[in-house]
Amino acid sequence: MAVMGISRFERFFKAAAGLDVDKNDLRRYQEFLDAKLYDLLLIGQVRAKANGRDIIEPFDLPITRGLQESIHRFRRLDEEIGVEPILELLARRPPLDLAVRDVTDEKLPEIAGGLSYALSQAFRIVFPDRRNPQTTHWERVQQIFDLLL
Questions:
Q1: Cβ contacts of residue 100 below 8 Å, gap of 6+?
Q2: Hey, CA dihedral for 79, 76, 118, 100, is it positive or negative?
Q3: Confidence bin at 44 (pLDDT 50/70/90)
Q4: Looking at residues 91-113, what average pLDDT do you find?
Q5: d(CA 68, CA 139)
Q6: How far apart are the C-alpha atoms of 74 and 64, rounded to whole Å?
Q7: What CA–CA distance (Å, rounded) separates 10 from 4?
Q8: Distance between CA atoms of 108 and 106, rounded to whole angstroms?
Q9: CA–CA separation, 131 and 31 (whole Å)
Q10: What are the distances in angstroms from CA 1 to CA 26, 29, 102?
């Protein structure tokens, strides 16, 4: 990630939850984002197949009410910081058995933004006094997301 992108993400996590992240955190963040987007798309693929379709539609993705609210909060926060263009590069779509409709693909950056906002809030809830998350903190928060997504 370019230096400009790193500084934007640092500002994003600071603004979203008062977290101080560094380059190692951004690597962990990328791994988290890849895994969770894959999970959402995998379920979307299952839903599309179950409905006899060979293309994943936006409504196939399991977007919960909480994630939808996090997407809205991300949008408001992103107006100031401008992270979404970087998320367009980071929100990589893994290879799947089915095709992904363009409109579904276009939603991935904002979904990634919602996941990012939810991630920052999860750190605040689980570790309210921690400003600089360490590896064990990342692992715990990821375990929670693995249970829910």
A1: 41, 44, 55, 56, 93
A2: negative
A3: very high
A4: 89
A5: 24
A6: 15
A7: 10
A8: 6
A9: 20
A10: 9, 12, 25
| pLDDT at res. 29 | 93
| Rounded Cα gap, residues 48 and 16, in angstroms | 34
Which of the 8 DSSP states describes residue 52? T
How many residues are recorded in the chain?
149
Measured between alpha carbons, how far is residue 75 from residues 16, 83, 122, 142 in Å?
11, 10, 18, 23
Q: Which pTM was predicted?
A: 0.92
Q: How many CB atoms lie within 10 A of CB 26?
A: 17
3-state DSSP of 3-47: HHHHHHHHHHHHHHHCCCCCHHHHHHHHHHHHHHHHHHHHHHHHH
